[in-house]
Amino acid sequence: MNNAAPIREADVVAYLQEHRDFFGAQPHLLEKLYIPHASGGAVSLVEKQMALMRESYSRLQRQMDELLDIARDNDKLFQRLHQFTLAMLDADDFAGALASLDHILHQCFEADFVAVRLFMGNSIDDPHVPSGIFLAPDAATPYADTLARQKPLFGALDETQRRLLFGTDADQVASCAVIPLLHSNRQGLLGIGSRNAQRYHPAMDGLVLGRLGEIVAARLAALLPADG
Known about the structure:
By secondary structure, the protein is α+β, with helices and mostly antiparallel strands. It has seven helices and five strands; from the N terminus they run ααααββαβαββα. It folds into two domains: 12-90; 92-223, 2-Layer Sandwich (Beta-Lactamase), CATH 3.30.450.40. β4 and β5 form a beta hairpin. It is elongated.
């Protein structure tokens, strides 16, 4: 049996008068109280409650605005990826696919530098395809972890990694995205470089660029000679 004395209204009033900062320390209670209007006083509980409601509304509005911004950004990404896919499919040969890749990454993905490296040893007989694209399989060593993880790498690279991808432009690349190109038994890399050190960073989501890499790898593999 509970022998505790019942709490009287006068006890509550006395406690609140003695602890005038009570609601300041427990603001969440104000949102649950029904407070009748009162006249006088510097700041009434009703005014405090309304201020909290306005703050809550403003916070919700900011969250909604952020979600709308994300949705718009995702829609733009989808449109760019769709445009990219169509351009790659429209390429008639390997050189054309490389040209489309370079053009659309510069135009739609704001790339400063674009590089493709395929670790397959032998080149193809086409004067329009730079021979530096094709490297021996063991040249992939600086990117062994990236290829093994099969996920894009974002951020700043060391000098060896930069030069392998971007050659004479390496010193201008402050940050980049490195996307594995994996198809059947072939391995390669797509590098998207930026002069802006903040453009690509390790915390980035690699989903979209990962899908882009799958498209590139499949299309380039389809356009390579059967023994390439």
